[in-house]
Amino acid sequence: FHLDLMKERDDVQAIVHAHPPYCTSLAITHREIPAIHYMMAAFGGNTIRCADYATFGTAELSAHVLHAMRGRSACLMANHGILVAGANLDKAMWLAVELETLAQQYFNTLLIGDATVLDDEAMAEAFQAFSGYGLQG
């Protein structure tokens, strides 16, 4: 799926694939991460999707990951880990660290109760603010 994503998207020059504990815990539950924080805007959408499960190394898993990555720079991989893409390795690594932070925040919120999700208007404002802030792309 690494090469398939790079072939499909000209904006992707680096990929980080990892199994960080909070992201992987959420991926095991097949949960998306909703817009719980404005930093979600750094990933290109209102959610971090969770790609459906398939055996590692298969074309089926690659197809699931490509679908989950449409319009996004990261996804969870069900029962597996994460994939993060960036314009360069520094950006991809930065996004991977931010993703694990969001996953930890969401995980902890679920322990307390329901998460309050930012609405589309709040996220649109975050996307606009990030457009000149050097975090997107």
From TrEMBL:
GO molecular function annotations of the record: aldehyde-lyase activity; metal ion binding
The keyword Lyase is annotated on this UniProt entry: yes
Domain Class II aldolase/adducin N-terminal: 1-107
Pfam families assigned to the protein according to its UniProt record, in alphabetical order: Aldolase_II (PF00596)
A GO-annotated cellular component: cytosol
Keyword presence, Lyase: yes
Signal peptide: none
Cited SUPFAM superfamilies: AraD/HMP-PK domain-like
Keyword terms: Lyase, Metal-binding
GO BP annotation list: pentose catabolic process
InterPro entries to which the protein is assigned, alphabetical: Aldolase_class_II_sugar_metab (IPR050197), Aldolase_II/adducin_N (IPR001303), Aldolase_II/adducin_N_sf (IPR036409)
Stored PANTHER family: 3-OXO-TETRONATE 4-PHOSPHATE DECARBOXYLASE-RELATED, FUCULOSE PHOSPHATE ALDOLASE
Protein name: Ribulose-5-phosphate 4-epimerase and related epimerases and aldolases
